Amino acid sequence: MTDPTATRVAIYDLDRTLLRRPTFTLFLIWAAWHEAPWRLLLLPGLAALGLGHALRLYGRDRFKPAAIRLMLGPRLTPDRAAKLAERFAGWRVPADVPPGASAAVARDRAEGFRLLMATAAPEFYAHAIAEALGFDAVVATRHQRDAAGNWLPALDGGNCYGAEKARRVTEWLDANVPGGARRIRFYSDHVSDAPTFALAHEAWLIGRGKGPAAHAARHGWRTADFETDTAAC
């Protein structure tokens, strides 16, 4: 039975859940195109980095900083980062938000859930997307900053993915919902988020076809297709 006094939190993954398309590589290419089109000549290098990651020659913790440095340079000033993030968010939201995601967010907000985005995307643009979607908070991959406050390609801690995402979500919950009962909903398109699914009272695997249905049945998760499920989940 649901505790009526429980603090309600709805947690959403970003890529392929709240937005249809993954954002990381898209942001790098988009930013290069708008700021320094000559950097598009470096796309073969970006592709090579992606191939190395796909072949498991190195992990995301090495791939992401190298890709950011290649396409954005060695640092991002706070003003530059904020302007890029705001413009990028304005381009992707609401055009890339599937109807089911909009419906789920509206339903959760109406039911009094706090909205938390939990994503492996870099924090310097994830916050702008979360704000554009009306979220209350965001947990994203952290990046180091220099003494002047400039964003650096190097990660500050681990990539916010898999077990690290669950750790960061737990950290946020402990800081923002200390003590008392909690009611957690979590939505993601990928089984790599199993550690965060384990934190939820309602776990929603987003996708279509037999694959998501089989994974959901195996783990006791619910399923939804955000392209077609426009009613409340």
How would you describe what is shown here?
The protein is of the alpha/beta class. Strands 3-2-1-6-7-8 form a 6-stranded parallel β-sheet, with helices on both faces. The chain has a two-stranded antiparallel ribbon with strand order 4-5. The longest helix has 15 residues, at 78-92. Helix 1 (24-35) runs parallel beside helix 3 (60-72), helix 2 packs antiparallel against helix 3 and helix 4 (78-92) crosses helix 6 (123-132). Strand 7, helix 9 and strand 8 (222-224) form a beta-alpha-beta unit. It has 9 helices and 8 strands. It has helices at residues 24-35, 43-54, 60-72, 78-92, 99-110, 123-132, 163-176, 194-197, 210-219; strands at residues 7-12, 114-122, 137-141, 143-145, 151-155, 182-188, 202-206, 222-224.
